Amino acid sequence: MVKKECEKCEFKKNPEKAESRLHINSFLIGSLFTVLTILWTFSSKQVDIILMSQLVLAIPLIFFASLSFSKLGYFENHNLWDTFGWIANNLGYLLFFNAIGLLVALFSYRELAFIYFGLIIVLSSTYYIINIISQPGTLKEHLSKLILWLIVIFVGGVLPIL
Fold this sequence. Notes:
- The protein is mainly alpha-helical and 162 residues long.
- It has one domain.
- 78% of the residues lie in helices and 0% in strands.
- It is built from five helices and no strands.
- It has helices at residues 15-43, 49-70, 79-106, 110-134, 139-161.
- The protein is flat.
C-alpha cells in the first residue's frame, strides 16, 4: 500500500501532463541541436566553454526529463518520476536559457543579454509568487524552486558576462 506523503500529492495517471511535457521537450531538444550545429558550423573557435558546456549539458538533462515525464502517463505512483523529471527538466531549461543569454553577449549585445536575464528573473519570480498565492501551504516548496532558478541563472548566465 502506497502512503500519501502530502495532501496535494496525486497518485494517478496523468497522460495529458506527460504528453504536453514531451512535446515541449522534443521541440527544445531540436532547438538545442540546431543551435549547436550553427555554432559549430560558423564559429566553433570563438564559442566560450561555458556557453558550449551549458548547451551540451542541457541535452541529456532534457532527454532524461522527457523519459521521466513519460512515466506520468502510465504509472499510478509517479511522485519520484515527477520530482526527478522536474529537476532534470528545469536544470536543462536553465542551462539553455543561460546559453542563449551568453550567445547574445558573445555577439556584442551585452546590454541586451542583461535585459534578457533580468526578464527571466522577473518572470520566474512572478511565476513562483503566483504559485505561492494560488496554492497556500506551498511557500517552502516554491520558494526553494525559485531560489534554484535564481542561483543557476545568476551563476551560469549573469556572472560569466560581468
